[in-house]
Write a structure and sequence with these properties.
With 167 residues, the protein is of the alpha+beta class. Strands 2-3-1-4 form a four-stranded antiparallel beta sheet, covered by helices on one side. It has five helices and four strands, in the order αααβαββαβ. The chain starts with 21 loop residues before the first helix and ends in an 11-residue tail after the last strand. The radius of gyration is 21 Å and the shape is flat.
Length: 167
């Protein structure tokens, strides 16, 4: 098998994870449980002063531990009851091509997440759709017809078991 003429260049060097003490961990756990908790209630729950709590949460955001706050939506109640994971193989692995593909997939309507992965497939794309016909059209129009795509396999999601999201 010939060597890839465009090998991937190494990514950035790993960085040391930010150190979290017991208070930081307690703040993170409380915020994962309820991202809308008030500063006063968060401070009470963790057992620190409100002014300290504001500074600690700001520090967690600045250090990249907390990357944002968002609303979790139920796709079915939004008219998109069908979910699937699309496994995609690419014919080339040029860094620019892989990055562009992931960004393009993530920007498509109905895409909940796009993961660049190792193994036999290159991407897993989690999508929601209104109907089987809409899912089929999404795959045909946006995935399998795209240049550079060599393999597509769509798996329906019957039930999701969501993790706690707290490390």
């Amino acid at each position: 098998m010939p060597k890839n003429p465009h090998p991937l260049t190494p990514g950035p060097a790993p960085t040391a994870p930010p150190l979290l003490d017991e208070i930081d961990r307690a703040l993170v756990v409380a915020l994962v449980d309820d991202g809308r908790i008030s500063n006063a209630a968060l401070a009470r729950e963790v057992g620190i002063a409100e002014s300290t709590c504001v500074g600690r949460v700001r520090s967690l955001r600045e250090r990249g531990v907390i990357t944002g706050f968002h609303a979790s939506l139920d796709a079915a109640t939004m008219g998109r009851p069908l979910q699937a994971v699309i496994a995609i193989g690419l014919s080339g692995h040029d860094r620019a091509q892989v990055e562009a593909f992931g960004d393009e997939m993530a920007g498509l309507p109905g895409v909940l997440a796009a993961f660049n992965i190792s193994g036999a497939d290159d991407f897993l794309v989690h999508v929601s759709a209104e109907s089987p016909d809409q899912l089929r059209d999404f795959v045909l129009d946006n995935v399998s017809s795209r240049p550079g795509v060599s393999h597509v396999q769509t798996s329906l999601i019957f039930r999701a078991h969501t993790g706690r999201q707290s490390l």
